[in-house]
Amino acid sequence: MPMKTRPQYFQVPRIPFEGPGSENPLAFRHYDPAAPADGMTLKERMRFSIAFWHSFRGLGGDPFGPGTIRRPWERGSDALSVALRRMEAAFEFFVKIEAPFWCFHDRDIAPEGATLAESNRNLDRLVAHAKALQKETGVRLLWGTANLFSNPRYMCGAATNPDAHVFAYAAAQVKKALEVTHELGGDGYTFWGGREGYETLLNTDLGREQEHLAAFLRMAVDHAKRIGFKGQFYIEPKPKEPMKHQYDFDVASGIAFLRTFGLEKHFKFNIETNHATLAGHTFQHEIEVAASQGMLGSVDANSGDMLLGWDTDQFNTDVKEITLAMVSIMRAGGLGRGGFNFDAKLRRPSIDPEDLFYAHIGGMDTYALAYRVARRIISDGHLDRFVAGRYSSYDSGFGRRIEEGNARFPELERLVLSKLGEPVPRSGRQEYLENLLNRYLTGA
Ligand code: XLS
Ligand code: NI
Ligand code: NI
Q: How far apart are CA 23 and CA 25, in angstroms?
């Protein structure tokens, strides 16, 4: 059925690109989907994705009060028909906001039933609907995932639950989530270990829980192979919230975990800006750590509030932060089959449908602008040349032998004693580089 014959839920037209001079708040100023971008269109290059959970399930509820946001498609008491309408509203939005991808958790799109069998039936209904809408609109699935953290059964974890029965339930749920992700042609599948961690070590066998998590991930890899799912698996690190401590604390501990259990070939990282800062890192740091191991996968694009200690999941309009991240992503050769998924939500008082558009327009424009600035930084090469120069003593002679693993302590001792003497300190030039970065950012 063509889109036009359906009820339209948003009284907003498809967002046009009008350029930096535009004063229309419902237009893109930097994200021109059709613009060329290194051999493809900017739309294909950026691979923006909409997070179904925040934009179509989040209604502004917080621990102090219920939702504030009312949406026309949410009216009605039959959960399945509401879910079907909500899915149509979502695809209307994906098209109007020029996003080529979306992401979801199983329980975002279909109501949980009284039994697993009923939940699976509900999911099948909604997956069939999503498949038809994907076909009709050309919007694709960046990644799927399972919600293993909301239902009370998961209060002490899913794969790391002390009860094997809960482990088995989670396994059954992920099996199904993998199958529907495959059915929808998903480019990936994400594991965010929401409650995979602990509240107190008084009741926790930390070693055993991590073994169980590894066993779970191994079964997922195995099942993907069995059903022919070739999408990329991602680990999404987060240090805390909801748990006091989560095992996938940050990219570095994720890498250590994967290598410990021999899983590193099967996973890359989905890096979320706000999770990076919660772990005490910058967004760029997490990207660099993943990239240094060839494990940079995808990005959950959002930002936190530096004055708050939790995951505020805000839309990111910080050109500097994203430009730095983009420079690292480009140096690493891009995200490949990953993308920029707006895992971000409206503030509680942003209750109008237009707010959903303003939020994504701001995020997309900022990323598109950062892409252009980062491209210039890389093609000018000043920064890269500076860094290369800083390490040039490793390019030849004994430096080279150090890098190649052919140097030994006695040889280096001899060199220092007989020839090199005291090293001459060289400036790190941080302030000079910060000024250079500002010139790129402001164009002035
Ligand atoms: C929560 C996570 C979650 C994952 C998907 O903090 O960011 O939304 O991206 O399960
Ligand atoms: Ni996320
Ligand atoms: Ni988050």
A: 6
Per-residue pLDDT tens for 28-41? 999 999 999 999 99
Test site for ligand 1: of 103, 109, 272, most ligand atoms within 8 A of the Cβ? 272
**Annotated catalytic residue 380:** no
Residues 146 and 264 in one domain: yes
Q: What pLDDT digit, counting tens, does each position of 84-101 carry?
A: 999 999 999 999 999 999
Q: Tell whether 290 and 410 lie within a shared domain.
A: no
Q: Are residues 375 and 400 in the same domain?
A: no
Nearest Cα neighbor of 270 from 247, 245, 295 is 295
As residues whose CB is below 5 A from the ion ligand 3, the structure lists 311
Task: Output the CA–CA distances (angstroms, integers) from residue 333 to 34, 84, 252, 322, in the order listed.
Answer: 22, 39, 20, 16
Per-residue pLDDT of 195-235, as tens digits, reads 999 999 999 999 999 999 999 999 999 999 999 999 999 99
**Co-location of 398 and 375 in the same domain:** no
The answer to whether residues 331 and 429 belong to one domain is no
**What is the CB-side half-sphere exposure of residue 420 using CA atoms within 13 A?**
13
Q: Which residues pair with 298 in a beta bridge?
A: 270
pTM over 0.90: yes
